[in-house]
Amino acid sequence: MSLKELDRIxxxxxxxxxxxxxxxxxxxxxxxxxxxxxPSPGTEPEFVYPPLEFSPPELLDSLQGxxxxxxxxxxxxxxxxxxxxxxxxxxxxxxxxxxxxFFHRSLTLYGRPPRDMVQDAEEILARPRExxxxxxxxxxxxxxxxRYLDLYRESYPGFECEVVVAPHLGSSVYVHENRVHIQxxxxxxxxxxxxxxxxxxEAHILTYLNGLRQPLGLLRAGLRGTMAFRxxxxxxxxxxxxxxxxxxxxxxxxxxxAVDWMVRGLEFFEVFEKxxxxxxFDEDFAYSVxxxxxxxxxxTQDWVCLADVGGxxxxxxxxxxxxxxxxxxxSLDELNTVKELLDEGVLVPPKFLPLxxxxxxxxxxxSSRISLPYxxxxxxxxD
Length: 383
Hints:
The protein has helices spanning 3-17, 19-23, 28-37, 56-64, 74-95, 100-110, 115-125, 138-155, 190-212, 218-221, 226-240, 246-263, 268-277, 283-294, 309-317, 335-343, 372-376; strands at residues 162-166, 173-176, 179-183. It has 383 residues and is mainly α.
């Protein structure tokens, strides 16, 4: 099998899996209404999921039957093998939706937040904070994103991205390929809208569009660990752009502690209750967090948006070239390999880069680990 054929199989499999689509419940609204009517033990939601839009046995056979040992370049052999293994595990995860096996497979695939991150998150959540006013509707958020996208269209001829308001989303915002979906009927704060500009566009849209230009479909399918990397790149983009508000930081931390509680055995209602009564979140928000982490049987993925932020910051602070983060769906562990492939012409340099790159500085990092309180208070703007 040629590298080109293998590349196509990996890319096609990644396109079909669409994990977030397949784990989002189709009856989310009615289950939320039922639960919030009288939150109590035993009233946990009973979610229903969309049918898989692919045949797991056929896709597994296709991936498992791809010979990788014949790839001459050891680096490419490692990259393809790692992503193939991850895709196989993701298919097996989706096969287990709605069962206890899903949780165990999720834990194997995404892990759990380390204890020091959980402690950081609890420290941040214990601080007083004011809720931001949610004064914007979906159309107003769309308008803000459209105006920001105009800046990219001016800077980069051929830049294509669309923002749409969608009625049936499992989250407030969702990105698929070069389209940003905003949840119809939801209310948003101004700072949330600012965060979407940088997280969704500068991490997800830019890496997707740059990936389209690569000769290797692997950079469109993603390297192993690309989910954590791109979500963390989105958070880094929020920090670098100076829009990381206290409420947003608390929301991210709520996912960390909630995943930790679930892994330690707490049920849906128990996590909901702790978010409301221990950390002061309103019931609507607490429910949304619980839905995210308990969907499909226990989805531990939700903490990984913070998994690589410290690593990305350290890479930048120690002289790394940030453009290496954007040639496609890369990963933190393989940045040196990506740079080598770029230097050798195996990959093409990214055409679309974040606008904030011209206005951020390299910080002096603490000698100890990079904590969440440090990250969320970091100012990268040039003096």
